[in-house]
Amino acid sequence: MPEVLFRVDLNKPMEEQDTPGHNRWHPDIPATVSVNPGAVFRMECKDWTDGQVANNDDPSDIRDVNLNRVHVLSGPVWVNGAEPGDLLVVDILDIGALPQSEWGFNGIFAKENGGSFLVDHYSQAAKSIWDFHGIYTTSRHLPGVKFAGILHPGLIGTAPSHQLLDRWNRRESDLVATNPERMPPLANLPTPHSAVLGSLKGAEFDRIAREAARTVPPREHGGNCDIKNLSKGTRIYFPVYVNGAKLSMGDLHFSQGDGEVTFCGGIEMAGWLDLHVDVIKGGMAKYNIVNNPVFKPGPVEPRYTEYLVFEGISVHETTGQQLYMDAHVAYRNACLNAIEYLKTAMGFTGEQAYMLLGTAPVEGRIAGIVDIPNACCTLSIPTSIFDRDILPK
């Protein structure tokens, strides 16, 4: 087993760990450990909510989650010799659940606390608990379903420079200013409330807590991309913006459907990552990788071959308004069509079907985005995850 460089105690919040992690992005958050290029090491991670969700049938903890606390991240890891303009090469060698926590959760967030992709249709909190059986998972809250997971970090990225951080905060503040009372909000702006900033204390903590960006969205450095294909064997090329790169990670998922549509999406878990890192000097300019990471997926994923595919087009589902090439609405319609079908085929409630789309290895696609005025998106559900034949008869 690789050397464990970051350990977590599941009974302690992140700021009380022997080595605290962080839940904000800022270049001045100190690194917790340093490694040389070529190093192989293990990082343990708490679940993204820092242990706020319990293994029970009560969705009130999903309803009441403190979103200012998320995401708690392990790191930063300082990579010796990494400088701005380099590429940080990160190989995900292996991923697993912590042996004392072989379960995970999924939830629909209430509209007044984050919401979700289908928030106007499912505005109340709901929760499903998933038990792990080797590579498979089942849930007492979604009977008749079993599937293989594709474990991955929902969130992994390097630290921003001061200039990049300022750009993030400026553009997201401008967006919020267009509709400051919107619920859910258009973006989550910096707030000191529930900030965790590693070993920082005093005036320096206060300064960084006011400036640091929230971890909620993906950005140029990677971050919370929630790409299910970042699994075992994946190699990621991250732009480096600060000395040492300052790599951090967390938000581990046992499985997830494309889009992570319930927001508390995928099957969230505590676990560990085995990583290998290297540096390509001057790689950002050499390969023109300057705006976002690039990755090569690994060879490990569930081998499902038969799917039932649901389509959606860019016509508003309640008003009937014709929208122009709107892939967001088209994918929403594909999800809603799948939910209505599963309510009949499996006897699920809408909430159960919705949570299935967030957890199972469903495939989302932009099928067509040229035929005006309708974009077409598809959602493909593997049929063998069900204990019965769900095809129309």
TrEMBL record:
Gene3D superfamilies in the record: Acetamidase/Formamidase-like domains
Superkingdom field: Bacteria
Database matches in InterPro entries: FmdA_AmdA, FormamaseFmdA
Signal sequence coordinates: none
GO molecular function: hydrolase activity, acting on carbon-nitrogen (but not peptide) bonds, in linear amides
Protein name: Formamidase
Name of the encoding gene: fmdA
